[in-house]
Write a structure and sequence with these properties.
The chain has helices at residues 49-62, 70-73, and strands at 3-8, 14-18, 35-38. The protein is an alpha+beta fold and 77 residues long. Strand 1 and strand 2 form a beta hairpin. It starts with a strand and ends with a helix.
Length: 77
Amino acid sequence: MPLYAYKCQDCAAEFELLVRACDLPCCPACGGEKLQQQVARICAEIKYPAIARSWRRAAARSGDLSNFGKAELGLKK
């Protein structure tokens, strides 16, 4: 189930919902069904460098390194 961001056109509430293809989402604040799907926000930075390093180590172990630069991997340029 994908996570979608919505804005209610009735009450202007912004929220995220897990939505199946067969479900019709409604606003949790007012119950309205006139929703506008929004572009999901992306976290600009990771506030805990130790967590980021552990994620990078896990990615290195599994071979998923294509989205990291040499500096981020600790390799010489």
